[in-house]
UniProtKB/TrEMBL annotation:
Residues 9-26 have a biased composition (Basic and acidic residues). Residues 1-47 are annotated as: Disordered. This is DUF1684 domain-containing protein. InterPro entries: DUF1684.
Length: 186
């Protein structure tokens, strides 16, 4: 069974389990981004309801000569990434593209983005996706992008963190009500 062939029930259970683990980490772990004085009152992050419609297949466009790009951050110096590929996808009948970034030596694919929930229902500086394909995607490959796994960076919870901002090329003119919502418990 491929990652996209799991049943919706299995997918939903795994997603809810992942969210529960994250809430536990945020509420009790010493490396939680929640300020220590606020952890006792922390009762979990806010999430959009799981929605399989926001788990889509994207087509990979590889960049043979990845372009370096300095992503601005919420505080401090910019961070250097390579734009290694572009994902072409369809969300709610709307075509979209998302640039994918990697830092030197990084295996995961970093996809920072903004959408029409940004600053309203989700964190004001955008959200992130991290993709972990089982192998290096080739041009024309298909990869699953699950916006239900979109998360707010640590700087959404504490000003002690500096986080990359999604570049304008990843500002989607779409409403994606999936993943983490704004944390407004503080």
């Amino acid at each position: 069974m491929t990652e996209f062939e799991t049943t919706e029930t299995d997918w939903r259970e795994e997603l809810l389990s992942t969210r529960a683990e994250k809430d536990d980490f945020f509420g009790s772990h010493p490396q939680s981004p929640i300020p220590p004085g606020e952890r006792d009152d922390f009762d979990g992050l806010s999430y959009f309801d799981p929605d399989a419609d926001y788990r889509v297949t994207a087509t990979v466009e590889r960049h043979d000569d990845p372009e370096p790009l300095d992503l601005e951050t919420t505080a401090g110096p910019s961070q250097r990434y390579l734009r290694t590929m572009t994902l072409h996808l369809d969300v709610d009948g709307e075509e979209a593209s998302l640039a994918v970034y990697q830092q030197e030596g990084q295996d995961s694919l970093f996809v920072p983005f903004r959408d029409k929930t940004t600053g309203q229902q989700s964190y004001e500086n955008g959200r992130y996706l991290e993709l972990y394909p089982d192998r290096e995607p080739a041009d024309g490959d298909e990869i699953v992008v699950d916006f239900n796994l979109a998360y707010s960076p640590f700087c959404a919870y504490s000003e002690t963190f500096s986080c990359p901002l999604p570049p304008e090329e990843n500002w989607l003119d779409l409403l994606i009500p999936a993943g983490e919502k704004t944390w407004d418990d503080h």
